[in-house]
């Protein structure tokens, strides 16, 4: 397994993997109609431009001989999830997903290792990430990796998830944090 920066040519395979991973990881957590409405083509279109300029917001892909097995997106911490309003002291892992057929193969750890190494190079002191409270599988992964639950007043939030035809639903999220450097 190799981890490398994503390129614009990776936009569509990453989008397909992203939709597949969401449908698997969030089944029973997010509304079924939300998951059914996910559109890989629309996601790929947005990602093409993002992958062309990775000077601030970066995406890495985990690849083996058969294709992309996972991806991780990261960069400066977004205040209120706004890319235009970042706090440069802290880093954030925005997304890390592995193809459901390759969960447990080390792809997630390889992606997190590479992302954390890149963030440490950029001199961030802490890495933060948000996870759905009900996503116990992801929470266990982050905790095994050394992230701890942020129990401060800003460590909980509600994520408004669109539900086609019914309006949004709020899902509880938790923030986790870890030092940017893992080498002490």
Account of the protein in words:
With 184 residues, this protein is of the alpha+beta class. The protein has 5 helices and 8 strands. Strands 1, 2, 3, 4, 5, 6, 7 and 8 form an 8-stranded mixed beta sheet that branches. It starts with a strand and ends in a 5-residue tail after the last strand. 30% of the residues are buried. The mean pLDDT is 91.
Q: What can be said about this structure in brief?
A:
The protein has helices spanning 11-25, 32-36, 40-52, 107-121, 136-145, and strands spanning 2-5, 58-64, 67-78, 86-98, 126-132, 148-149, 156-161, 169-179. The chain has 184 residues and is an alpha+beta fold. The mean pLDDT is 91.
Give structural attributes.
single chain, 184 residues, alpha+beta, 8-stranded mixed beta sheet, 8 strands
Number of strands: 8
The number of helical runs is: 5
Cα(first) to Cα(last) distance is: 26 Å
**Model regions low in confidence, pLDDT < 50 over at least 5 residues:** none
Task: Report Rg.
Answer: 16 Å
**Average of per-residue pLDDT values:** 91
Shape: globular
What is the beta-strand fraction? 25-35%
Which range best describes the helical content: under 10%, 10-25%, 25-40%, 40-55%, 55-70% or over 70%? 25-40%
Largest sheet: 8 strands, mixed
In sequence order, what are the helices and strands, one letter per element? EHHHEEEHEHEEE
List the helices and strands and how they pair.
Layout: E1 2-5, H1 11-25, H2 32-36, H3 40-52, E2 58-64, E3 67-78, E4 86-98, H4 107-121, E5 126-132, H5 136-145, E6 148-149, E7 156-161, E8 169-179
Parallel strand pairs: 4-5
Antiparallel strand pairs: 1-2, 2-3, 3-4, 5-8, 6-8, 7-8
Helix pairs in contact: 1-3
């Amino acid at each position: 397994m190799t981890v490398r920066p994503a390129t614009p040519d990776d936009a569509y395979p990453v989008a397909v993997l992203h939709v597949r991973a969401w449908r698997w990881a969030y089944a029973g957590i997010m509304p079924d109609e939300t998951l059914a409405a996910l559109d890989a083509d629309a996601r790929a279109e947005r990602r093409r431009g993002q992958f062309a300029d990775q000077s601030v917001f970066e995406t890495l892909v985990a690849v083996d001989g058969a294709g992309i097995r996972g991806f991780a997106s990261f960069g400066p911490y977004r205040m209120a999830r706004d890319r235009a309003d970042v706090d440069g002291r802290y880093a954030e892992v925005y997304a890390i997903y592995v193809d459901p057929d390759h969960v447990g193969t080390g792809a997630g750890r390889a992606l997190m290792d590479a992302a954390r190494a890149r963030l440490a190079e950029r001199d961030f002191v802490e890495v933060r990430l948000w996870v759905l409270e009900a996503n116990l599988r992801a929470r266990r992964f982050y905790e095994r990796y050394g992230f701890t639950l942020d129990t401060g007043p800003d460590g909980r939030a509600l994520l408004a998830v669109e539900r086609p035809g019914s309006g949004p639903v709020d899902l509880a999220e938790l923030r986790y944090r870890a030092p940017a450097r893992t080498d002490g």
